[in-house]
Design brief:
404 residues; alpha+beta; 4 domains; six-stranded antiparallel sheet; four-stranded antiparallel sheet; 12 helices
Length: 404
């Protein structure tokens, strides 16, 4: 059966990986490609030397959601992106300047690449990036019609240009590109040009400031092809934005983030409305769901890293609890165990296998035993705990316990 015969149905993950490997070889890729089914990625080598890896999850989601008659073109586009390394960068920075662009990533994707490199002892790409809030990152790319290549710090060093200088040029180039902004109803603005840079246009602050919104600008970026902006004091606009963002996340491939950000001065910050806001419950639930999934992926990678390096560290899972119609994320902190705790809304302290859990809010935990919560460089954030709270600290926490 030919490769395009399998485009008639939705392929399994394994079948998609085999299709992509064949398509890469057919397009002239001479690298050795090994399929890592457990991590759903392709491991690359060139004459025995490590050549990186290709994560397949986003490509697979994109492929499956494209109409069947367009899947051949979709696969060809994926191949072109994977082969962007074959097209070298210009030797001179001035030749590359017109084609530099900023590109938005989910921070979790960069973190997953870092953790995967620790499992396989393969170097993760040293991309030049800056954070946008806690959950997003802006990278630099060299954008040509047939491919887009992410730029590493090594690439910029070869051009003798700093990441800041290159990012400013990329930002200017993006502002000069043609794009469309539409207004839905009275107070929701949307950019849907379809060039994979709509979400990135959130960094064009001169454009954002032209939007007539009630309160401070609030943005949601469900994927790279959507930028949604309304005002912090506009309940109708916020409701419309949430409805559209949820629809995009359900129907469109390659999600970015479900979490809103707020423009404060010249900086985008993470945002959650006050508890009495009509949209608070929906936004909190979206945040909990997002972090629940990201923590689950992170735990799997951390467990493999510790197994590979022979480390006995308990990586706490994130659980979802429901109380009076509200969802709470929760993690277990067991006694006498070296552990990595996620930041969850509730924490269940377990003194022993037969002891009832002591359930406390994260804020109370920080207030009483914050010195025991050692920050790490992980995202989403985890805290290393090497000792359990003392009896006096536990007694204080019991007075603040949450009933479940």
């Amino acid at each position: 059966m030919g490769i395009f015969d399998s485009l008639r149905g939705t392929p399994s993950k394994d079948r998609f990986a085999k299709m992509l490997i064949q398509a890469l070889h057919d397009a002239g890729d001479t690298r050795q490609i090994e399929y890592d089914a457990e991590e759903f990625r392709l491991l690359l080598s060139d004459d025995g030397d490590d050549a990186g890896f290709i994560n397949l999850a986003n490509f697979y989601a994109q492929f499956c959601q494209v109409p069947k008659e367009h899947r051949a073109a979709c696969l060809s586009g994926i191949v072109r992106g994977c082969l962007s390394h074959l097209k070298g960068l210009p030797d001179e920075y001035e030749d590359a300047r017109p084609d530099l662009r900023p590109r938005l990533w989910a921070r979790a994707m960069l973190e997953q690449m870092r953790l995967q490199s620790l499992i396989t002892d393969r170097d993760a790409p040293d991309l030049a990036y800056e954070f946008l809030g806690q959950h997003l990152a802006i990278t630099l790319v060299y954008d040509l019609p047939e491919s887009v290549r992410s730029l590493s710090r090594e690439d910029l060093d070869a051009w003798q240009v700093t990441p800041y200088e290159a990012m400013e040029v990329a930002r200017t180039n993006l502002a000069e590109d043609d794009f469309m902004i539409g207004k839905l109803g009275d107070s929701l603005y949307a950019s849907a040009t379809g060039d994979s840079y709509d979400a990135t246009r959130v960094i064009l602050l001169d454009v954002i400031r032209q939007f007539e919104v009630k309160g401070e600008p609030i943005a949601m970026l469900p994927n790279r092809d959507y930028l949604l902006v309304t005002g912090s004091e506009d309940v109708d606009g916020m409701t419309m934005m949430l409805d559209l963002a949820e629809k995009v996340l359900q129907e469109e491939p390659r999600p970015l983030s479900t979490l809103p950000i707020r423009l404060s001065g010249d900086e985008w910050l993470d945002w959650m409305p006050p508890h009495e806001h009509p949209c608070y419950a929906r936004l909190r639930l979206m945040e909990d769901r997002y972090l629940y999934e990201e923590y689950g992926t992170q735990k799997g990678l951390l467990d493999k890293i510790h197994e590979t390096h022979g480390e006995d560290i308990f990586v706490a899972s994130v659980m979802a609890l429901e109380k009076q119609g509200d969802m709470f994320t929760c993690a277990v902190w067991p006694a006498d165990v070296l552990a990595l705790l996620p930041r969850t809304r509730l924490v269940a302290l377990m003194q022993g296998p037969d002891s009832p859990p002591l359930m406390v809010a994260w804020e109370d935990l920080e207030a009483v035993v914050g010195d025991l919560l050692l920050p790490t460089n992980h995202y989403p954030p985890r805290f290393r705990v090497e000792q359990f709270p003392s009896e006096s600290q536990l007694e204080t926490l019991r007075r603040r316990a949450v009933e479940t």
